[in-house]
Amino acid sequence: MRQKPVLSHDDVLAIAAAARAEAQRNGWTVTLAIVDDGGYPLHLERLDGARASTVEVAIGKARTSAMLHAPSAGIAARVKDNPGLLALGMMPMQGGLPLMYGPHCVGGIGVSGVQSQQDEQVSAAGVAVLEKIWSGSQPA
């Protein structure tokens, strides 16, 4: 039987706290979303002042990253050649990053509310804390 790593509730809370801290440190009002490896929401947080439209965008970025095992920005060229990908809920915008455990994608984080590169900076703070948590136990 195969086994696969999954995000724990504590992992998700730590990722969210690190991302929130990065946004607040910079005075950015964003929405952050964390999804599992299937793209299903595990956590959604809309900071005070974040626009309602940021919710779906953050979820879309996170889902895209989880499903592709790659940053959401990378899908832009693929959507250009295959617009049908948009029907799958793909979000071809920077700001979503995959959550990796060694070679395994365990989910994604997406942020929306500021400039795309700033959204990705907030996502990267969440990724970095997960890497610290799992650094001693990652498979080769």
- Class per helix and strand makeup: alpha+beta
Shape by Cα distribution: globular
Report the total helices: 4
Instruction: Write the CATH architecture name.
Output: 2-Layer Sandwich
Quick structural summary:
By secondary structure, this protein is an alpha+beta fold. The chain is 41% helix and 19% strand.
Structural account:
The protein has 140 residues and is α+β, with helices and mostly antiparallel strands. The chain has one domain (9-133): 2-Layer Sandwich (Beta-Lactamase). Helices cover 41% and strands 19% of the residues. The chain has a 4-stranded antiparallel sheet with strand order 2-1-4-3. A hairpin with a 2-residue loop joins strand 3 (96-101) and strand 4 (104-112). Helix 1 packs across helix 4 (116-134). It is globular, with a radius of gyration of 14 Å.
